[in-house]
Amino acid sequence: MVCLIYCIKNVQTLKSGYTKFSEEHGATSRSICEQWMSADGVYIPKEQNSTEINQFRPISVLNVEGKIFFSVMASRLTKYLTENGYINTSVQKGGIPGVSGCLEHATMIWEAIQRAKSEKLNLDVIWLDLSNAYGSVPHQIIQLALRMYHVPEDIQVMLDDYFSGFRMRFSTNSYTTDWINLEIGIAMGCTISPILFVMAMEVILKAAENSAGPANLGGGCYMPPLKAFMDDTTIICSKEDETRRMLERLDILMAWCRMKFKPKKSRSLSVRKGKIDATTIFTVASQQIPTVSQEPVKSLGRWYDSSMKDTKRGLETVELATEGLLAINRCGLQGKLKVWCLQFMLISELL
Q: For residue 88, which of 215, 247, 255, 204 has the smallest C-alpha distance?
């Protein structure tokens, strides 16, 4: 326990020292240690009462030294991409430090719906769910993104070697599988994976963004037709033909990448002259997308339904805040720790 506390208190010093070591050894040799490319897989449930394999998410338990090395690389790669404007943060807000992506996107999407309602405008909003996002992104699209954004060749070679040699195994109470090569997808649990996934998605989003113009929200207010947070992609258009064109373009691009959307988990909302229109149906992957009139959807922490009202959400927030404050007050923690729970746990949950 003493050793653990020491490491936590001195994590920045340890990381700085490891950064220097990785510069002197890893970056010069351009080789990845074999132990860093081996992972034990753990399945965690994605929902309550999960029984089928597709209801679980595989998380990779990796070598700690390797995770520190790739966290340094990820930090520098993120800084490089943002400082050079390679990631459009008005569209993609996932994996970007210092950006409250969920809150910002959810607020802007809700504001667009409310403006369409009050100004009696036309608006289409489609929430798209990507099937097995991390596990289906091809390594080729990652290499394409690295070349497209002029990432140094040394880094490209290291990442290519890393994913080419990456292997996993899974254990249960009774047996352990053989080692399996990761031929497609990226490992959840690897510190470099989030920014690489963002780069891959950015390639797709940039290829689709010109399929529709900005959504007209009235009063000289316009919004980009695409919003993304990691793999959660939302289409916002004020013209139905542009919505269909954007949806078709994204569908083609995903098929080209050997990825696909889940129509059953996607949702659409159509507003015509300020009122909900349940008759407008969109399709993706040759299947109909359910409307919010049929099934409400929760995206980035906010519920959307055919009422286009926030009354229920307000009541739920008050109830959650009351229960959370009572729970914090009843716990046996010191006062300053209760404040920490309020600031970093309850408030973030309410937002």
A: 204
Q: For residues 150 and 168, give the distance between their C-alpha atoms in angstroms, rounded to a whole number.
A: 30
Residue 226 β-bridge partners:
235
> b/e for 179-196, b at 16 or more Cβ within 10 A?
eeebeebbbbbbbbbbbb
Residue 308: burial class (beta carbons within 10 Å; 0-12, 13-18, 19+): middle
Same domain for 339 and 236: no
* Mean pLDDT for the chain overall: 86
Structural domain including 87 reads 15-309
What is the C-alpha radius of gyration for the chain, rounded to an integer number of angstroms? 22
Place of tokens 């805040």: 321
Cβ-Cβ contacts under 8 Å for 151 (sequence gap 6 or more): 77, 80
Q: Which pLDDT belongs to residue 21?
A: 45
Structure letter (DSSP) for residue 264: G
pLDDT-derived band of residue 213, with 50, 70 and 90 as boundaries?
very high
Residues 286 and 318 grouped into a single domain: no
Q: Are residues 278 and 345 in the same domain?
A: no
Q: Please report whether residue 9 resides in a domain.
A: no
Question: Residue 20 to residues 166, 190, 231: CA-CA distances in angstroms?
Answer: 25, 21, 33
59/75 same-domain check: yes
259 and 151 in one domain? yes
Count of structural domains within the chain: 2
- Using one digit for the tens of pLDDT, what is the confidence trace for 178-201? 998 988 888 888 999 999 999 999
Please count the other Cβ atoms lying within 10 Å of the Cβ belonging to residue 159.
Answer: 22
Distance CA 34, CA 185 (A): 19
Chain-centroid distance, C-alpha 260? 16
